[in-house]
Amino acid sequence: MGEYRIEKDSLGEVKVPRDAYWGAQTQRAIENFPISGIRFPRPFIKALGLIKYAAAKVNRELGYLDEEKAKAIMQAAREVADGKFDDQFPVDIFQTGSGTSTNMNANEVIATRANEILTGDRHTKNPVHPNDHVNMGQSSNDVIPTAIHVSAYSETVEKLLPALEHLRNTILKKAEQYRDLVKTGRTHLMDAMPLTLYQEMSGWARQIELGIERIKDALPRVAELAIGGTAVGTGINTHPEFGKRMAEELSRLTGHPFTEAKNHFEAQSAQDAIVELSGALKTVAASLMKIANDLRWMNSGPIAGLSEVKLPALQPGSSIMPGKVNPVIPEAVRMVAAQVFGNDAAITWGGALGDFQLNVMLPLIAHNILQSIKILANASRVLADRAIEGFEVNRERIENLVGRNPILATALNPIIGYDKAAEVVKKALSEGRTVKEVVVELGYLSPEEAERLLDPILMTTPGRVSEKVK
Fold this sequence. Notes:
This protein is mainly α. The protein is built from 18 helices and 10 strands. It has helices spanning 24-32, 42-61, 67-81, 100-119, 130-134, 140-175, 197-222, 242-254, 264-269, 272-299, 328-352, 362-388, 395-403, 413-416, 418-431, 435-441, 447-453, 464-469, and strands spanning 4-9, 12-17, 182-187, 190-196, 224-225, 259-260, 309-310, 354-355, 358-359, 392-393. The strands form 5 sheets. Strands 1-2 form a two-stranded antiparallel sheet. The protein has a two-stranded antiparallel sheet with strand order 3-4. It starts with a strand and ends with a helix. The mean pLDDT is 95.
């Protein structure tokens, strides 16, 4: 019995580990949901701490909470926000769909710590009570959606967007070195008209740029907070100004422009803003998948593949084949993208399964959106720093492949016509010769005309070939 203490709630007595800061309701959740071992991540716990800090401050200002209790709650909540009690949040992600267990986990830990501050002992309910004081003016039904929005907004702005900006800038900086390096274009994985390596990489950079714009477009909706709606959105048991003041205080604490939800019934019954944000994250993941795939193909070889670029050698690639080096960073990025696709599906289902006045898939949504933000941010930096920034270009191979590409005859369509150009391509392919050689041999162009019109660099800029024709 020395390892436990007895706590009580409305259902009766519960054994709680003696040194734990949590109380009966948290303990019941630990015992009821031994499902995944996945806990809420640090950004979510930080947001919960900030919400409880803000609530104590606002309730004190409104005259609902006395100075002594408010100060103790604020100190305890700040410590939770700062990560000092992360080990006191053991409840599984897969729990009650409102996240009530985790809200009560926060209430109990903060109340116990506040009482320790005030009395020196770890009392769970006296003088500060988890429901009456820490949860004053709140409900799990508005606290948990608010924590999702605060944490998702903060992580997106502070970590993901800077990482994507870094990736975009790294791509453009690398691409700038190859403005005039002409390479073979590919459509359907087959040889196509040439373009510069700069042009190819500029497409990657634009994908990331548009992804940033899509994410930013979603953020104003994420900035709307459900807090103040309490149980069903009506705001029962709280002050009419509570939601507005909470948004203002959370904005002050985080530096982000949070606002009270324009409609509390929407904010609690749905999670559409997070579904929208997840959709933007999924699009970014699709962009990263495309870029990573391009890099894998371009790096393939070194003998039997394209071997256009050489990614940095980061680790041995095989336990049996000596000297083999694999494109490990693009592979990791592809797995991140696949995970984000899966997270988005779970978030979409979670958002769609709101019932009447409350969405009851909140812990699932919280876990998946925060994981997507985190791994996309980390993958973007790794892709920039450990793949794109340091890859080497096989210039000789790239230029040789361009010169041997029969598809260059496409540029002759306006001069000798499609049928004759097709004849040149067919003959060049079958005989393993260049377009320049064949088109001169067939008498369609003079050597000087062929040399002038089949310069690959002309084909990378619209209008330059036609200018040469004139």
